[in-house]
Amino acid sequence: MTLKLCIAQLNLVVGDLAGNSQKIIQAAQDAYQNGARLVLTPELSICGYAAEDLFLRSAFISACDDAVKAVAVALAPLKDLAVVVGHPTGGDSRTRSLAVQQRFNAASVLREGQVIATYTKHELPNYQVFDERRYFTPGHDACVFEAGEAGDTVKIGLLICEDAWFEGPARQARDAGAELLVTINASPFHVGKGNERELKMRERVRDCGLPLVYAHLVGGQDEVVFEGHSFILNADGSLAGRAPSFIENSLLAQVNKEQAAISIESTITADRTADEDLWDALVLGVRDYIGKNGFPSVLLGLSGGIDSALVLAIAVDALGKDRVRAVMMPSPYTADISWIDARDMAARLGVRYDELSIVPEFEAFKATLAGEFKGLAEDTTEENIQARIRGTLLMALSNKFGSIVLTTGNKSEMATGYCTLYGDMAGGFAVIKDLAKTTVFRMARWRNAHDPYGTGAAPIPERIITRPPSAELRPDQTDQDSLPPYEVLDAILQRYMEDDQSIEAIIAAGFDRADVERVTRLIKINEYKRRQSPVGIRVTHRSFGKDWRYPITNRFRA
Questions:
Q1: In the chain, how many H helices and how many E strands?
Q2: Contact by Cβ (8 Å): 94, 119
Q3: Residue 161 known to be catalytic
Q4: Maximum Cα–Cα distance for the chain, whole Å?
Q5: Are 171 and 207 in contact (CB under 8 A)?
Q6: Dihedral, CA atoms, 379, 384, 387, 391, nearest 10 degrees?
Q7: pLDDT over 70, % of the chain
């Protein structure tokens, strides 16, 4: 016998129950017309992932329950079609005690107007950006249902995301009679995560001896991005199908069952490079944050430096040139080449470009403070005033025209505090917040060598990439005046912040003690700044966001 199934790799919006339901219904109807009799949607597809403390509201859970029923009714005319939808369920509105409430991360199977089966997630992740134990109670039972036309079906074992990373739930489904495993997922992207998933799922199918279908979410949600990359594995671990990354897609597959053996046939999207994934993650993160939150356009300060140049290129790829505005705000210390390069880049991308000198405002601030600062040398105070003038101007433009300000700080700067509160940190979305400076340079070169969105020639002038980076807040300033070389700084940052290595372990790996002590001290004392920074796109396995929860008041260092 044969069964055609469809992975509906959907881009959903948290809380948009009506919109998400309609997407599910449309995807199921289209799949049915193409012969599918089993449709899989992502984890928590009814409400979007992750709804965070919305899960604690009984009205939200009730609305999700109603949405599941409505989707079932809408699909009732499609005979023999089974549709798997993810949703929260449970709860007890009669008590304020979270300890006695039972909420579940669930997946229900809908067929001909009815909910024929419901599975509740066993393994609740509580690491990195995950916080599922705050909201859900673990399930314990297997869920096996039949898909196909009457008398010609396949027994399907249903799992949800983290369950497939452990042996127990898959073996439990197999022992309950499953012939094929399907898992619905919402697994946040970081560079390399797609390959990690495929490797882990190969381990799972070899362990339990069953083929596996991995249905994944796509889209941006605040700081996280889901890249899609749904896939299918045969029981021997061989790749039978793979959906494209970073776009919605309906991946059709044919399940062939001969006696007790099952094989699956589908299309396989080619492998991608890590930098290609990274670029598309940044673009999708910007597009969905702006689009899902209803901002008409974006603006940013374009300095002639590498960070703002990269953010501008990402923004244009994400939104198109007509929704992006660049503002150059020269100070007394802005080099001529910064003006020239900023104008050049804006012209290459065709965005609106304006120049607003901050010299008059800077002089006015200094005059106002002259009495207070009498006899004191200029220092970072005056540097920060320049940054704060720029932040004020950008926020004024944002307020007047409704455009959200994209900040341009990178992870190296966020780590060491090489950024100004209410200055270059002022804005609504931090596009490259999780990119180390060395990665910023690499991605600028990658984008100049590729044109994935058809914007034309290399968008970033070469001199922006090759000149020494500088904030241009005092004469002849460069970043390396006050920081170790970025190759050193970023390597220490990765070991200490991302990989949790101790100070002594990093020194033992060959790094200079003074550099390690300096960088780790800067990471510690600048926690208060990071708490006040905009949300930004997560692309590494540990970002300065939900992954990083350190106290501001803290005397421990090791």
A1: 16, 20
A2: no
A3: yes
A4: 92
A5: yes
A6: -160
A7: 96
- State the catalytic residue, choosing from 4, 23, 43, 433: 43
If one counts every other C-beta atom within 10 angstroms of the C-beta of residue 337, the result is: 14
pTM exceeds 0.90: yes
Q: Could you tell me which of 506, 503, 513, 516 has the C-alpha nearest to residue 558?
A: 503
- In the numeric block, the tokens 């045969």 are attached to 234
Give the residue from 209, 207, 204, 164 showing the smallest Cα distance to 184. Answer: 164
Contact 330, 359 (CB under 8 A): yes
What is the spatial order of strands in the sheet that 2-9 belongs to? 114-120, 103-111, 82-90, 38-40, 2-9, 249-258, 261-266
Tokens, residue 23: 């997407």
The secondary structure of 153-171 as a DSSP string is EEEEEEEEGGGGGSHHHHH
Which pLDDT does position 94 carry in this prediction? 43
CB within 8 Å of 374: residues ≥ 6 apart: none
Q: Cβ(353)–Cβ(332) under 8 Å?
A: no
Catalytic residue chosen out of the listed positions 64, 161, 208, 419: 161
- Paired with 104 in beta bridges are 89
C-alpha to C-alpha distance for 233 and 223, rounded to whole angstroms? 30
Q: Which residue out of 23, 121, 411, 529 is catalytically annotated?
A: 121
Coil, helix or strand at residue 186:
coil
Do the beta carbons of residue 432 and residue 540 sit within 8 Å?
no
| Tokens 């400076």, residue located | 437
Q: Who contacts 446 (Cβ-Cβ below 8 Å, separation ≥6)?
A: 275, 279
Residue with tokens 């948009």: 16
Q: Per the structure block, which two tokens stand in for 385? A: 């005033």
What are the CA-CA distances from residue 123 to residues 141, 174, 195, 205, 264 (Å)? 12, 17, 21, 18, 27
Query: From CA 471, how far away is CA 335, in angstroms rounded?
Result: 11
Residue type, 40: L
Q: Which residues pair with 8 in a beta bridge?
A: 250
Q: Determine the pLDDT at residue 98.
A: 47
CA-CA distance, 433 to 413, in Å (whole number)?
A: 9
* Closest to 161 measured CA to CA, from 178, 146, 139: 139
Q: Tell me, what amino acid is at 39?
A: V
Q: Are strands 352-355 and 144-149 parallel, antiparallel or unpaired?
A: unpaired
CB atoms within 10 A of CB 10: 24
Q: Look up 121 and say whether it is catalytic.
A: yes
What are 140's two structure tokens? Answer: 């314990």
Q: What is the Cα–Cα distance from 129 to 543, expressed in whole angstroms? A: 9
**End-to-end Cα spacing for the chain:** 61
Q: pLDDT grade, residue 260 (50/70/90)?
A: confident
| Span 418-447, average pLDDT | 97
